[in-house]
Specification:
elongated; about 65% helix; mainly alpha; 8 helices
């Protein structure tokens, strides 16, 4: 989602094309003059179709085509982004960096968002009748230790409550 609406970008670009300086608009709107000049360039190329969503970021093939268009025409990142009606030149910059580091494979869409949680190993609990005597003893020792810890925790909580009661009195 864009920080500024499409209508706002169109109005700002029209003002700049009508002769208002990007620096004047920068002071009025608190937006960088570079951003305003980019919007103006996109609007000058695409007119009312500017800032519409496009599918350039959908595949590695289209990203590579965008980079080749820039290279063959010796265009800047900004001009190429404006011609392709991208949301910002930063997208193309990231594609270029990724391509230079990892080649075509780097342009392929990676998963977005957080990585999934690791699956916990599926430990199946055997019924008591299938457990050996040693396994039963181990489980009993574990359960006794767990019970002792829970009892101690309860004792500590009770002691804490009693101290707070004494302080209130």
């Amino acid at each position: 989602m864009s920080k500024y609406s499409r209508e706002f970008k169109l109005i700002t670009a029209k003002k700049c094309l009508d002769g208002k300086s990007s620096y004047t608009l920068e002071n009025e709107l608190s937006i960088s003059s570079r951003q305003i000049r980019y919007w103006t360039q996109v609007f000058a190329i695409h007119g009312t179709n500017a800032f519409l969503p496009n599918s350039h970021a959908s595949s590695a093939k289209t990203k590579l085509q965008a980079l080749k268009l820039m290279w063959t025409n010796s265009w800047s990142l900004t001009h190429t982004s404006a011609v392709l009606n991208l949301s910002s030149p930063g997208s193309l910059s990231i594609w270029l960096k990724t391509y230079n580091e990892s080649g075509f494979r780097g342009l392929e869409r990676s998963s977005i968002g957080r990585s999934p949680m690791k699956q916990q190993p599926n430990t199946r609990v055997k019924p008591d009748s299938e457990m050996t005597t040693e396994e039963l003893k181990e489980e009993l020792a574990y359960l006794r230790a767990e019970n002792a810890v829970l009892k101690k925790l309860e004792e500590l909580e009770q002691a804490k409550r009693q101290q707070t009661k004494k302080r209130r009195k």
